[in-house]
């Protein structure tokens, strides 16, 4: 639909440039057809392929050995079979519009600038990123963000564990029950945000009587939290790290397994895939992160890295330079 409809719409409104999410694999083709400069934005995990980097939909560890690279190649081949209809459709339009066919997914991204919300320290070691790739850190801001009401008077002063599985793939009441059971004998206060998946009074009685809300002021609670239990979405992970909070990740879908594996690799948390979840595994992971100070220390290091990365101001500077000059904006050495 975007390939068919977007060119006419963009011409009509007279845009001068595009910001294209890396996940919108057709966006660069539309821009090239219209002769518009564009900048690629990694809103989630960096999608640029390298043989040493596992496919982002997997929880595979970073293993830059011959075996690891072979495993990754097989994973990418399987992934390419799944997205083959998308690639074929894009190349059909390339042929129709007189553009070169795309043979490598990396060819879909901007040659002017690519900006990524991750700090470099939350990415596996890269060997072949283009010179115009920039790790800018997150683009979050509390400005304009709706802040839900929260019963702050019910906070006990115990170490706070904040648990949220996001607002999309979060209808996992059984997982919330397991989290509660895993935490109830620890000297902590557990707060569960349901993310709109249901009403708190619709839940069965939970072990340890955690504080359960439909929506939570996540940024405010992370400032007080000792540990975050998260689905591993990039926004939640970056918000946790921006507050120096270590994590236990329960990746559910999409790029969450890849993000969770990077959290483990960076030493700022543990991860348990949703299909392997159990009360025992949760209790072990939560206790480990609470007791071992290196998780907190590494989360604080990532917090510092985020602050150094430049954030939205640096990202804007890169975008404006790319569009104004029409030349690649090279990353600092």
Summarize this structure as a short list of keywords or feature phrases:
single chain, 333 residues, alpha/beta, 6-stranded parallel beta sheet, 4-stranded parallel beta sheet, 11 helices, 10 strands, 11% strand, globular
Kindly summarize this structure in a few lines.
The chain is an alpha/beta fold. The chain has helices at 2-13, 27-34, 66-82, 84-96, 173-183, 218-222, 234-242, 256-265, 279-291, 293-309, 311-325; strands spanning 18-21, 38-42, 114-116, 133-135, 160-164, 189-193, 211-213, 227-230, 247-249, 269-271. α2 links the parallel β1 and β2 (38-42).
What does this structure look like?
By secondary structure, this protein is of the alpha/beta class. Helix 1 (2-13) crosses helix 2 (27-34). It has 11 helices and 10 strands. The strands form 2 sheets. A 6-stranded parallel sheet has the order 7-6-5-8-9-10, sandwiched between helices. It is globular. 39% of the residues lie in helices and 11% in strands. The protein has helices at residues 2-13, 27-34, 66-82, 84-96, 173-183, 218-222, 234-242, 256-265, 279-291, 293-309, 311-325; strands at residues 18-21, 38-42, 114-116, 133-135, 160-164, 189-193, 211-213, 227-230, 247-249, 269-271. The longest helix has 17 residues, at 66-82.
């Amino acid at each position: 639909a975007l390939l068919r409809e977007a060119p006419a719409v963009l011409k009509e409104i007279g845009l001068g440039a595009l910001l294209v999410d890396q996940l919108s694999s057709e966006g660069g083709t539309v821009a090239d057809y219209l002769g518009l400069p564009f900048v690629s934005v990694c809103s989630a995990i960096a999608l640029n392929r390298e043989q040493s980097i596992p496919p982002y939909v997997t929880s595979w560890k970073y293993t830059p050995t011959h075996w690891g690279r072979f495993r990754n190649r097989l994973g990418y081949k399987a992934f390419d079979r799944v997205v083959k209809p998308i690639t074929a459709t894009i190349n059909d339009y390339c042929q129709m519009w007189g553009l070169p066919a795309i043979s490598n997914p990396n060819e879909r991204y901007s040659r002017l600038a690519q900006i990524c919300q991750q700090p470099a320290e939350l990415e596996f070691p890269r060997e072949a990123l283009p010179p115009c790739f920039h790790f800018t850190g997150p683009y979050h801001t509390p400005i304009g963000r709706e802040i839900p009401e929260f019963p702050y008077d019910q906070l006990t002063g115990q170490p706070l564990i904040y648990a949220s599985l996001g607002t999309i793939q979060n209808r996992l009441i059984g997982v919330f029950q397991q989290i509660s059971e895993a935490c109830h004998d620890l000297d902590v206060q557990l707060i569960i945000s349901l993310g709109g998946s249901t009403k708190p009074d619709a839940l069965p009685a939970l072990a340890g009587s955690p504080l359960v809300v439909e929506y939570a002021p996540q940024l405010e609670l992370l400032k007080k939290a000792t540990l975050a239990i998260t689905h591993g979405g990039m926004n939640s992970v970056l918000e946790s790290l921006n507050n120096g909070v270590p994590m236990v990740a329960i990746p559910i879908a999409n790029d969450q397994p890849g993000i969770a594996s990077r959290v483990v690799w960076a030493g700022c948390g543990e991860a348990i895939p949703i299909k392997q979840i159990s009360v025992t595994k949760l209790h072990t992971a939560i206790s480990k992160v609470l007791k071992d100070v290196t998780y907190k220390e590494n989360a604080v290091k990532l917090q510092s890295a985020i602050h150094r990365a430049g954030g939205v101001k640096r990202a804007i500077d890169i975008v404006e330079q790319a569009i104004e000059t029409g030349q690649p904006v090279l990353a600092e050495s």
